Amino acid sequence: MAERRTGDPEAFCGAGAGGLALLGLVPGAPSCPHGPALLFVKTSRGKEEGRRFYACSACRDRKDCNFFQWEDEKVSETRRAAREEYNRNHQPFFTHRQNVERYKNFVLLPLSKRRFCQECQQLLLPAEWENHSDHQLLCDISTAQLKSPSQLLYPLENKKTNAQYLFTDRSCQFLLDLIIDLGFRRVLSVGTPRLHEIIQSKASQEEDFRVRSLLLDIDFRYSQFYAEDEFCHYNMFNHYFFGGEAAHETCRKFLYQDNGERVIMVTDPPFGGLVEALASSFKKLMAMWKETEEEGHNKQEMPMFWIFPYFFESRILEFFPSFRMMDYQVDYDNHALYKHGKTGRRQSPVRIFTNLTPSMIVLPVEEGYRFCAICQRYVSSGNQHCEICNSCTSKDGRRWKHCVLCKKCVKPSWFHCNNCNCCALQNHTCEKTDAGCFVCGKAGHKRSTCPSLSRTRTACQVDKKQRQKTLTRVKTGICRRSAMKRAMFSRKKVKNKKKKM
C-alpha cells in the first residue's frame, strides 16, 4: 500500500471526503531510492484541498523510506545533489549483470563449496567466505534449491510495500494449469515470483513445455538467480524499471513476441498497496502490449489475472469495469489466515479478478466448485443463486441471504437495522447518516481539529505551565533554604573553631 500522510491513503475517495487523495505520477517528480515519487494532497470535508506533497510510491511507512517534499518547495542544488547521492548509495551493491556472472561462477563450484548467507541473503563465492564467517550460512546448495529461490530467500512481509505471501503449490499449480488450458504461452509475472519459478523450472526440465515467463518484481534478490531476459527490477506502484531503458525494452520485447498473441499478465500486489497507483501501472503495461503491430489489439485489453482480496472489488471495478471476480480461493504458504480448506469467516478472502470471459475459467470440481448455468460461471459450493438478484451473490464462500429492504443479498451474520436503514452485524453501534465530530457532534471537522478540543487542550496547557512554574518556585525555594542552612552551619563551625583556639 505513514506517518507523513496523516491517514490511510486507501481511504481517500472523492470531493468532500477527509484524508488524502492520490494525484498520481507527474512529469518531473523528484525521486527516492524506489523511483519517482507520487503526488498527494490532503483533503478535508467541506474545505478546499490542502497543500500538495510528494512521497515514496512504494513505502507507506516512513521507517522504510522517509522521502517527503512539498510540491511548491524550492530545493537547493546542494540538497538535490545530496539526495541523488543518497539514492545511489541505497541501490544494490551488485548490478543485475554482475549477479548473472556471479551465478554462472557459483553453479560451476562443487556442491561442498556452494554457500548462501542467510543474513545477507546472498550467494557466496569462496573469496567472500571470510567476510561472512560470523553469519548464519546454508551449505551444499543444490541445483534444485537454485531453481526454487522463493524457498531459499526469506519472504519480505511488509504488507504495504513488498509483502511476499507466496502461493501454495495448490494455487500455483491451478494458475499454471489454467494458463495452459486457456492457450497462453507467455506470462508477464508482476510480483508473482513463485509462479515464475515453477514456469522456469518446468521449461528447463521438459522439452515440450512451451510456456515462458518474465518476472517484474521490486525484490532485487531474485536477480541473483535469473538472467536479464527473465527478471526485471520493477516498482509496480509507479511503473518504474530500475534497470532503465534496457529493462523497459526487455519487457517490451517480451510482450511483442508473436505480435502480442497468447500473453497474459498475472499480478499479486501487496494487499496494503494503493489500488489507484497499481491500476495506473497495469494500464501502462497494457498500453505497451497494445503498441504491438497487431491491429486488433486497439480495441482489446491485455488478458490479465489480478489476485486481490474480494473486499477490494468495487475499487478494482472502478478502474477496470470489464473485470469480473472469480470464486476461486487463492491461498498462501506463509500467511496464517489465507489458507484453503477453512470454513466460515476463516476462508481465504483472496480472489482472481480477470477481464477474460467468466465461463472460460474452469474451477476444480473436486474442491467443491460447480458451474452455474444461469450466471455462466463457476462458483463455490456455498454460493447459491439468488432468484431475486438473478446472480450468485456470495463473496466470501458462505451462503448469503436476500434482504428485501436493502434489495440485495447480504452476509448471513447481518441483520437489517431500521435506525441505520441498512444491514449490519446484530451488535453493531448505530451511526448517524451525517457523522460529525466525535467530541462536539458538529459536522465539518473531525475530533483532531475540533475547536472544543483545542480550547480544552489550551486550558490544560496553561494549567500545566502554571503547575510547572509553581513547582519550579517551590524547588527554587527549597534549594535556597537548603543553601542558607548550609551557610549558617558553616559559619557556626568557624565560630566554634575560633572559640577553641
Describe the structure.
- It is built from ten helices and 25 strands.
- It is an alpha+beta fold and 501 residues long.
- The strands form eight sheets. The protein has an eight-stranded mixed β-sheet with strand order 13-12-11-10-14-15-17-16, with helices on both faces.
- β24 and β25 form a beta hairpin.
- The chain is globular and about 80 Å long.
- The model is unreliable at 1-17 (pLDDT under 50).
SSE topology sketch:
Layout: E1 19-24, E2 31-32, E3 35-36, E4 38-43, E5 52-55, E6 68-70, H1 77-89, H2 96-107, E7 115-117, E8 122-124, E9 137-139, H3 143-146, H4 149-152, H5 169-181, E10 186-190, H6 193-205, E11 212-217, E12 231-235, E13 240-241, H7 244-256, E14 263-267, H8 275-290, E15 304-309, H9 313-319, E16 324-325, E17 350-354, E18 370-372, E19 377-379, E20 385-386, E21 391-392, E22 401-403, E23 408-410, E24 414-417, E25 422-425, H10 451-500
Parallel strand pairs: 10-11, 10-14, 11-12, 14-15
Antiparallel strand pairs: 1-4, 2-3, 4-5, 5-6, 7-8, 7-9, 12-13, 15-17, 16-17, 18-19, 20-21, 22-23, 24-25
Helix pairs in contact: 5-6
